[in-house]
Design a protein that fits this description.
Blueprint (H helix, E strand, L loop, with lengths): L23 E6 L11 E4 L4 E4 L1 H12 L9 E7 L1 H16 L5 E7 L14 H13 L7 H4 L11 H4 L7 E6 L3 H8 L11 H5 L6 H17 L1 H6 L4 E5 L10 H4 L6 E2 L2 E2 H9 L6 E3 L33 E6 L7
Parallel strand pairs: 4-5, 5-6, 6-7, 7-10
Antiparallel strand pairs: 1-11, 2-3, 4-11, 8-9
Length: 332
């Protein structure tokens, strides 16, 4: 909650660093509710009373922005990173409903495509966490009803892979196939590796043995399988699925746009997103498998992520970004 934030990458106002969106009005929503702006409940025991009001925070922010210019936007992009990327999936169609019918409204989820994947001990660590989170914060009531009515376990609609086909607003998925947060917390959480066999691999890819690399390749295959329908059938969708070890790429200038930025088919993330948003060309890019991509920065965390799933989403530097084109009533 620092007072000042550096707006870089997709939020930069420098045309040479952010050629397609540099002159847009930009709003950054601070994230603090722990359920991607989707909770609406209270929890009480003998000592505590806790209110979870992410959904109401989301609604209040949008209603505050509408008379300041958002309500007359001609073009808008809702984006976010990590838990903010998940929020983009969860709130995309709702965001569209607030804006004028003739506006071009689209959404982008960066590092928010969290997989419903078993960990290396064959437990559904992330599914259990999400199910408990949805229950604690009363999230189910705010999930897409078409999705929840289609599943025997409606809480699973908190996972983008189940909700995606019900999103009608054009959507762009930006994710690495070897997302480091998912690697450390979904595929190999500390609870699944109590003896630390994966510790060196987590900190240094060169230390991963052949079996560990194959496990990581399996995770990539499952991510691409979960995206297969979107790739094949979504005419308005876009994607950039690279083979880097990173988490969040749209807000960092190094990974968004630059001479040494990651590329797929010689296209940067900024170029891929711009091509998609402005309908210049079809923009669905999928990288070859690790280690073929020499443009990756492979941002491996220097320390391991703590084994405290209860604070999983709160630990992310997960901001939800709202972008509105220049020319509306107020410059944010």
């Amino acid at each position: 909650m620092s007072k000042y934030e550096v707006f870089s990458g997709i939020l930069s106002n420098n045309a040479s660093l952010n050629p397609d969106f540099y002159n847009w009005n930009r709003v950054k929503l601070r994230y603090c509710d722990g359920a991607s702006f989707a909770g609406d409940s209270k929890f009480q025991n003998e000592t505590s009373l806790i209110y979870f009001r992410g959904q109401k925070i989301w609604e209040a922010i949008i209603l505050d922005l509408l008379p300041k210019g958002l309500g007359s936007a001609r073009e808008a992009l809702l984006s976010g990173c990590s838990a903010g990327g998940l929020a983009s999936f969860l709130h995309c169609d709702n965001f569209t409903n607030y804006l004028p019918k003739n506006a071009s409204v689209k959404c982008l989820g960066d590092a928010g495509f969290f997989l419903d994947e078993k960990d290396i001990s064959l437990n559904h660590t992330m599914r259990t966490f999400y199910t408990n989170l949805v229950s604690l914060q009363g999230v189910e009531q705010n999930l897409d009803t078409n999705c929840t009515s289609s599943l025997n376990t409606p809480q699973l609609c908190f996972f983008p892979q189940y909700a995606l086909k019900f999103i009608t607003t054009p959507f762009f998925i930006l994710n690495t196939a070897y997302d480091t947060f998912q690697f450390h917390n979904i595929l190999v959480p500390n609870s699944a590796d109590p003896d630390g066999h994966w510790n060196r691999c987590k900190q240094d890819l060169a230390a991963c043995d052949a079996s560990q690399i194959e496990t990581l390749q399996g995770f990539r295959r499952d991510m691409l399988l979960a995206l297969r329908g979107f790739l094949k059938y979504s005419e308005s969708g876009g994607m950039f699925i690279n083979s880097c070890f990173a988490h969040c790429q749209s807000e960092s200038q190094d990974t968004w746009f630059g001479v040494d930025a990651p590329r797929i088919h010689n296209k940067t993330i900024a170029e891929a997103v711009g091509d998609w948003y402005f309908s210049r060309r079809v923009s669905k890019e999928i990288d070859c498998a690790y280690p073929c991509d020499s443009t990756c920065h492979n941002l491996i965390p220097s320390t391991q992520v703590p084994d405290k799933n209860q604070s999983l989403l709160k630990r992310q530097s997960a901001s939800l970004k709202l972008l509105q084109i220049l020319g509306c009533l107020v410059a944010f």
